[in-house]
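note to self — DONT lose this again. spent like an hour looking for the file last time. sequence + predicted structure for the chain T wanted, 273 res
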Amino acid sequence: MARFDSPNSVHVGIQIQPQGTSVAAMRDAWRAADEMGADSIWIWDHFYPLFGDPEATHFEAWTLLSVMADDTTNAKLGTLVTGNSYRNPELLADMARTVDHIADGRMYLAVGSGWFERDYVEYGYEFGTAPSRLRQLGDDLPRMRSRLDKLHPQAVGPIPIMIGGSGPKVTLKLTAQFADSWNTFGPPEHFAEKNQILDDWCEKLGRDPREIERTVAIGGDDVDGIERYVDAGAEHIIVMTGDPFDLSPLQSLIEQRYLLDEASMKQGPATGS
């Protein structure tokens, strides 16, 4: 349930990292990405920088998403991804529904179990353990789906639930159970391995694996030859960038998307004998 209207053989996006920057710079970047033809635009959901200067400027994700929703017109939007335990799951579903209305139906609700201890300690959340955070994610995902179904008005369009992570025993099982979309990281070999494990979980649980969109986040130095990821099963490739926001890797992805689309059109639909 990715809700892309275009028939592109692969979709491409960008994550604009909200650290060491300003709101004005981020707004310029996501407006430009939208105008360039990005299929999706993302930020991350943390409260402090993840690398570099630990005291650099940083901004909260969902407030930014509401501004991004109003500033853009075409790209799908989301966090890559939201820390599940930062917010009550019913509230999170309502937040996603509300921003979806601002964005006229372009939202993802993307969640993961959380991992960055400083976020928890500084903001007074219980950090727990990796297993306890995964258990909480498993408990909260049905609550999000249930609340989305109850809200009035409903979202403009069905909001895809994305799960981020690659843990083979729990995260990918939860993805097969609950998700419409899944995100992990490169390189292609890592993506291919985890993608196969997700397919295996789908088979065990009776889920059609084609129902789950496969996305991968990559660095700007890894954008050449995206067919490596497409061949590994990726349908949606997202390049990550920080301030100063270099959009040339996104431009490369867009150009390669066009080339892959042209090749797919020339090949034509598969025919049986």
